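Hi P.,

Sorry for the delay on this. The queue was packed all week, but I finally got your sequence through. Input first:
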Amino acid sequence: MKDLSDIMRQAQQMQQRLQEAQERMDQITAEGSSGGGMVKVTLKGKGELHALAIDPSIMNPGDREMVEDLVKAAHADARRKLDDAMADAMKQATGGLGGMLPGFKLPF
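Then the structure:
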């Protein structure tokens, strides 16, 4: 039974590390930009829009579609960076074992 108690202890430790990683991930921010930095989007945690900055020089009548495209591109850039940061945080928490544990799936 010692093996089972060791496994249970290790599982509890892993669960604690995952909880701590989730709390850290909620605080992670990522900034994406487009148009040479004319549009910047900052996402936090699970993708919450934290900030949006648009350079006033691109706010011209008739440029609505261009601005919309730049906002979408900046958001996609920030999302990719946030996903990478989240994956790194989870990898650190699990020691890279997430894909090796049967039935274990990452929470994102």
